[in-house]
Amino acid sequence: MTSKASKLQPANDQQGRHRVPVQLIYASDSLEPAAGQSDRHVLGEIRFESTPTTLHREDINYPLVCVPIQQLWEPLVKEYWLSPTPVEYRQQADIRFSNNDQVLFGYTHFTLPTNGVSLEKQIRRRYDAMLALLQSQGYAHLMRVWNYLPRIGDEIEGMECYRRFCRARHDAFETFYEELIPNLPATSVLGTTGTDLQIVFLAGRSSLYHYENPRQVSAYHYPLKYGPKSPLFARATLVRWNREDTLFISGTASIVGYESQHRGDARAQAEEILRNIEALIAHVAKSIRMTTPGLGGIRQLRVYLRNSGDLGTVRQIVEGCLGASAQVVYLQAGICRRDLLVEMEALLGLEKPA
Prior knowledge:
globular, single chain, six-stranded mixed beta sheet, 4 helices, 20% helix
């Protein structure tokens, strides 16, 4: 079997035409510099393994994240975040991080407490440490955050784990930022089979542009029935480089307004998600006066499925809508609402006119 992921190439070509400060590639083998690509430096690596032997590797100098989520389509790939310039690798307290002159990649994790109060305190402490680190290092602008949360849908002392996570994160952001909404990054929160909450993040030195989806109520305006503190994230974050823009699209579900759609129907949910993503891309393109690339502009797409049995149906929908060069990875993961079966996140490179 082959998949689009097996054909992935680095985002920069051999002439260095698109030397953006951070690029994502998927590789089915360990990353080795190819001809004309000796300028690739690894900021970080993410591996999705159903039963990882460890959550990180001390013998590798860059942050390596092993997430206990099963890949559902071969060849199995590793995710590399690359820099075209040399990278510095460091650790501060519980955070491993790397950076070039414009972008910082970081990672932290801790074993999830079973006590609700302790859980929220730990989440708050790690978010406080992350935000303080970024401020002290001069990378104060969060581009993208991934949260891998065990027991995401379980109740812990009368409150769902995801809602406890949202409350703790909300308190950290609210304390740190004088202006909250303009600083919210693109984000995903997925359930894993592990025991540790893992937080992976990208941040930059320059100001970013955060966007909401015209088809959806902003998550930070959700009604109280979705939790005591609203989820704090932007639907997308746009980073404007010199020659090309990068658009990070948050984890996106079959939600219109603020209500879940198509309960129990993975096919219809996948179609609704792609409509949401397409509308968001068009909204961003209009705001920067660019012709929308539509779904065909997606470079990388992660598709998360609650049930592995939905893979064939969802894959047919996805690959029928995306361009031939799209790089797709299918993963089995927990999703934040019990009635949601599918979630997707995307990355686009928007080339500026010559």
